[in-house]
Amino acid sequence: MGKRHAFDEIMGQSGSATPRPELAALGRWIDETPDGELRRRQQSAEATFRQLGITFAVYGDSDASERIIPFDIVPRIFLADEWARLSEGLIQRVEAINAFLDDIYGARKILDAGVLPPDLIFGNPQFRPEIAGIRPPHGIWAHICGIDLVRTGPDEFFVLEDNARTPSGVSYMLENREAMLRLCPELFREFRVAAVDSYPDRLLETMKSVAPNGVVAPVCVVLTPGHYNSAYYEHSFLADSMGIELVEAADLLVDDDVVWMRTIAGRVKVDVIYRRIDDDYLDPLVFNPNSMLGVPGLISAYAAGNVALINAPGNGIADDKAIYSYMPEIVKFYSGAEPKLPNVETWRCREPQALKYVLDHLEQLVVKLVDGSGGYGMLVGPTATKQEIEDFRAALIAEPHRYIAQPTLALSTVPTLSDAGLSPRHVDFRPFVLMGSKGVQVVPGGLTRVALKEGSLVVNSSQGGGTKDSFVLMDGGNVQRQAQSHGGMTQSQGA
User: Fold this and answer.
1) Fold classification of 345-408 (topology level)
2) Averaged pLDDT, 132-137
3) Circularly permuted ATP-grasp type domain spans which residues (predicted)?
């Protein structure tokens, strides 16, 4: 693989002295706003985040148990036509993920057709035989998906991984936008930006739409493991934004296959639970018997059709990176069409030929654990030390089935405020897709994660990454080109 320059999303192809025409207004804003002023606004946003308690925990870090994710003041921008193409691909993929989950826990037609090797399902720790045969209300498994995307060129977007278990980060999407509206209102006068603040309403609508049949006014709750969890701020933020209760396991009980919430006014029947607890800890009677975080009898109530769980138990298998490598075939099997969003080229190390190639090219590749997340258990060959490469070589030879490998992509860059001023930094993107009984919707925005270290490709917050606001432009993009009645921040940000 030859060295390839990264695509600059604002300036266009590498070496250009002027921004892409559609983004000229952002280029002017960057040029006309002094670095010191950008830095002041950025620090103001971070001070607000700290005040609000928007923090995450880094497990195993003795220095600081909680910290904010650094915020960058220069937004990332998607043009309306780019977003339309992305949305089509995201909807197709999430529908395929849902069909796949419904199938492998049901008829297993994809295995009968020989599209996937059965051991990839049945030998997978994320496959939950305990729930095989249980059908979730309305047949919806993947209610909330975060599909991680990377960009390598003007029209080149790839799916990096799928998150159908408990995708996090939506609170950062919402708080980043709030900060930008307050600190950079002039940008919303320049651009017609699609609103993201309707997300809590859309999420609640999705939850209510999958309530068990016959429930007229569903009671919805968010189930959290508690305030020690790294994403606790997000759990409480979403419950508060939706106007529903945030509960822990001790607040719920199951009686005769019905879930009840304990309140000071007595028991209240619960119909829909947005659970932010992993399968292992969800119900000690079915999964880990030592779990203190789960609700005994919850899966029995779920199997009886008396409660909807968002996302459905067993979804973790759709996040597995070995399954990811088959997603083009999975999409085609269930949709009958080629994927609109391609995967990154992937070598499955469980296959002898692929393993040989990976071992021969370790210094050029990114190698990942199939069940890894958060940037852990990963080798980035071009930036790794000789010792790290040799350690990974030994791990691959010992347990090849646990790894996949991908080429080191030239991820696109967006100008980012660094100690030395504005500099290009690599980004990825997590849009959020909601699926309810009334269909699939893509939230017009998402979480842009940025690698703050120069040259780094690792954007994960636990590995020193930050976030940016993500502008999705409505048709026409620049307010200057619109009739006056359609301009301005209020119109752009209206729900």
Assistant:
1) Dna Ligase; domain 1 (3.30.1490)
2) 95
3) 75-451
